[in-house]
Amino acid sequence: MTRFLSNLSPSIIKWPDQAGKNIIEQNFREKGFPGIIGAIDGCHIKIDKPSNDPDSYINRKGFYSIQMHAVCDHRRKIIDLFVGYPDSGYPLQKYVLTPYRDRGNLNRYQNNFNVKLSQNRYVIEHCFGILKQKFRQLYHVKLRDIPLIVHFIRAACVLHNIALDDEFVVDIDPSSIPNNPALPATADNDDYDNDDDDDDAVGIRDRIAHLL
Questions:
Q1: Contact call for residues 50 and 146 (beta carbons, < 8 A)
Q2: Residues 95, 97, 101, 105: what is their CA dihedral angle, to the nearest 10 degrees?
Q3: Residue 56's domain spans which residues?
Q4: Which residues form the DDE Tnp4 domain (predicted)?
Q5: Backbone dihedral region of 27: left (phi > 0), alpha (psi from -120 to 50 degrees) or beta?
Q6: Domains: count for the chain
Q7: pTM to 2 decimal places
Q8: Can you list the alpha helix ranges (DSSP code H) found in the chain?
Q9: DSSP of 160-186, one letter per residue?
């Protein structure tokens, strides 16, 4: 059943068509950030010591994990998914906006950009919180076979999307779900890899910052 659900992912976890993009963009626009069709983040999934190549799955915090990278829309529906090695960051790219690195010298446009980004990015953190509450095994997947772990995580994401589309209600502990953060996002954490920033994307981000 796990592999069956996982193999449904291409038809359940998919990039929106143009009509869908327009709806998503409008919802993010109403929250103060136009031109966005998804929020991206990575989530560590704790696992038992893998049977093959275990050292590759020790994360920066010293425990075995695999990372789920996902993009979700305004409804917290997952529209893109990758499950892979435990640690990686997001460089600034033309189609992936990251915060300005805050060294205490940001101008008001850059600070406002970081605040707006944080206020809209929280949906992916909320998505992960809901996902783990629905499927508690994601707090610690007690499997050692990496391909099976990937199938298990992907299957959970498929069921998450199906439940959203069917408006299936699940009892969730509100305290486990991140709230909309009051503080702006910054690039001073492991989520962002500024060393590989795209020069063209820097200009795009600056232009967007002045439009917000």
A1: yes
A2: 110
A3: 2-211
A4: 40-86, 87-161
A5: alpha
A6: 1
A7: 0.80
A8: 2-7, 9-12, 18-30, 108-134, 146-165, 199-211
A9: HHHHHHTT------GGGSPPPPSSPP-
Identify residue 190 by its one-letter amino acid code. D
pLDDT, tens digit (0-9, with 9 covering 90-100), for 43-68: 899 999 999 999 989 988 899 999 99
From residue 87, give the alpha-carbon distance in Å to each of 3, 11, 60, 117, 190.
25, 28, 7, 22, 8
Closest residue by Cα to residue 2 from 140, 131, 157, 110? 157
Residues 6+ apart with CB under 8 A from 54: 64
1-10 confidence digits (pLDDT tens): 899 999 999 9
Cα gap 77→145, rounded to integer Å: 27
